[in-house]
Amino acid sequence: MRTVTLPENQAQIKMRVPEAAKVYADGYLTGETGMIRTLTTPAISSNQDHCYTVKVEAVINGETRVASKRVVVRGGRVTPVDFSSLADSKATSAISVNVPSKARLLIDGVETPALSGTTNLNTPELESGKSVSYLFQIETPRDGRIELETRRVTFKAGEAVVVDFSRKSADSVVTLK
């Protein structure tokens, strides 16, 4: 981590914000992008507090969210401000799994009731937009043995997912038990 030395007549506000957020300082749009934004003040008096109003606008799941904070700074110092909770939201993903007849479905090693054909499930609430991964397996009787087909599926919370075991996939691993 890089240490920043500020002149006594300047201050910085270091902000954590949602990735594509718009950040305003005292009504003026700042030009930075990314999750970490740094605002350096113009020359200020080093022996007294100065106030800035920082407003953040972010579109999360199609909804515009706005948060505003009054930030007190002093010359020669860095003031951290966290707006990341603006993006906090939960989402579920609808999962459709196409299971062959007589197959057992396991998700992350847990047997899941499934009908032959399409089984529809929902994930528990997850952090919206965060990548999650599940291990889907089916056990199918074949010639007196059990064929185990495994697929690791990664997706972002809130996305719809289709896992189709009716067709072989390049990302499947098949073993016999």
Tag the structure with descriptive keywords.
mainly beta, Immunoglobulin-like, 2 domains, 5-stranded antiparallel beta sheet, 4-stranded antiparallel beta sheet, 55% strand
The run of helices and strands is: EEEEEEEEEEEEEEEEE
Which spans have pLDDT < 50 for at least 5 consecutive residues? none
- Rounded mean pLDDT score: 85
Strand content: over 45%
Written description of the protein model:
This protein is mainly beta and 177 residues long. The chain folds into two domains: 12-87, Immunoglobulin-like; 90-176, Immunoglobulin-like, CATH 2.60.40. Helices cover 0% and strands 55% of the residues. The protein has no helices and 17 strands. The protein has strands spanning 12-16, 22-25, 28-29, 36-40, 50-60, 63-73, 78-82, 90-91, 94-99, 104-107, 110-112, 117-122, 126-127, 131-142, 145-156, 161-164, 173-176. The strands form five sheets. A five-stranded antiparallel sheet has the order 11-10-14-15-17, with no helix packed on it. A four-stranded antiparallel sheet has the order 3-2-5-6, with no helix packed on it. The chain has a three-stranded mixed sheet with strand order 4-1-7, with no helix packed on it. It is rod-shaped.
Topology (elements, then pairings):
Blueprint: E1 12-16, E2 22-25, E3 28-29, E4 36-40, E5 50-60, E6 63-73, E7 78-82, E8 90-91, E9 94-99, E10 104-107, E11 110-112, E12 117-122, E13 126-127, E14 131-142, E15 145-156, E16 161-164, E17 173-176
Parallel strand pairs: 1-7, 9-16
Antiparallel strand pairs: 1-4, 2-3, 2-5, 5-6, 8-13, 9-12, 10-11, 10-14, 14-15, 15-17
